[in-house]
Specification:
globular, five-stranded parallel sheet, Rossmann fold, alpha/beta, 9% strand
């Protein structure tokens, strides 16, 4: 199970690759503020984000989440000093699952997926494992869900769409 941020969902939606999340991770959690960001993007004219809305509406492997207790709400509010609403919600929710894993109350691995550098650094400070869109592509190739060529095509599509990426090819990603 993973908690995903709007940037990751946006990148995968642009490349028509949202289904890879289910194939790789089984279940994804979308924080409610992240979903709200997606809906605002649709209203602004980013039609490719409709595919995110469709999986939220129809897929049983997608869960919308908000805070379970006062501790998560406080953490969320504190995180707003350094990151935006979607990132803060994602980190707070991921922190809950991370703590449950440490207590052996769930058998599920958990990562927070974001491409925002500050959000990733903030999550690490909260002892939450992080990755991003590139991590998903790398895992997809390693798991045999995408060829290196397919991953490169996806990466190029995301770059054409405005994704600022530290690598220019899937080969470079896999070697790194």
């Amino acid at each position: 199970m993973i908690v995903v941020n709007a940037t990751v969902l946006s990148n995968l939606a642009r490349a028509n690759l949202l289904k890879i999340l289910e194939q790789l991770f089984g279940e994804i959690v979308i924080p409610l503020p992240v979903y709200e960001e997606i809906l605002k993007g649709i209203d602004t004219g980013y039609a490719f984000l409709n595919s995110v809305d469709e999986i939220v509406e129809k897929a049983d492997w997608v869960t919308l989440a908000l805070f379970k207790d006062e501790h998560e709400k406080r953490l969320f509010k504190n995180l707003l000093d350094s990151v935006g609403y979607g990132e803060a919600a994602g980190i707070a929710i991921a922190k809950r699952f991370t703590l449950l894993n440490k207590l052996n109350l769930t058998g599920r691995a958990l990562h927070f997926f974001s491409d925002d550098r500050v959000a990733r650094e903030t999550a690490k400070k909260q002892d939450v494992e992080v990755s991003g869109t590139l991590g998903i592509l790398k895992v997809a190739v390693e798991a045999g869900k995408l060829s290196t060529k397919e991953a490169d095509e996806v990466l190029q599509e995301m770059i054409r769409g405005g994704y600022r990426c530290p690598v220019q090819s899937a080969t470079e990603l896999l070697e790194g």
